Amino acid sequence: MFKRLEYFYNSKPFLMIVLIRIALFLGLAFLLFILGLMIGYSLLGSGGNPFSVFSGELWQKIFDFVR
Fold first, then answer.
1. I need a surface site. Which of 2, 22, 28, 59 has the fewest CB within 10 A?
2. What secondary structure letter does DSSP report for 10?
3. Phi and psi for 55 in degrees, rounded to 5?
4. Is 63 helix (H, G, I), strand (E, B) or coil?
5. How far apart are CA 26 and CA 30, in angstroms?
6. Quick one: what percent of the chain has pLDDT higher than 90?
7. 53 Cβ partners below 8 Å, 6+ apart?
């Protein structure tokens, strides 16, 4: 019985399933991070266009403020 499980966990399909799950998790985390930036900037921040959070000028102001 354990040889069967060992073969399953060492097989290529199992490895691909794990890699696909990791990729989906990282993709979803990145998407939610971007969505959180947009919501936080438009609702809690200046109340402007949510897509303006991606402008370089805004990030330059943030980095200058942190320094």
1. 2
2. T
3. -75, 145
4. helix
5. 6
6. 33
7. 37, 38, 41, 42, 45
Cβ contact 41:50 at 8 Å: yes
Look at residue 5 in the predicted model and tell me its pLDDT.
Answer: 63
pLDDT digits (tens, 9 = 90+) for 28-40: 999 999 999 899 8
Q: How many residues appear in the chain?
A: 67
Q: Is the pLDDT of residue 46 over 80?
A: no
- Token pair of 56 as six digits: 């370089």
Here the tokens at position 55 are 């402008």
The pTM for the full model equals 0.67
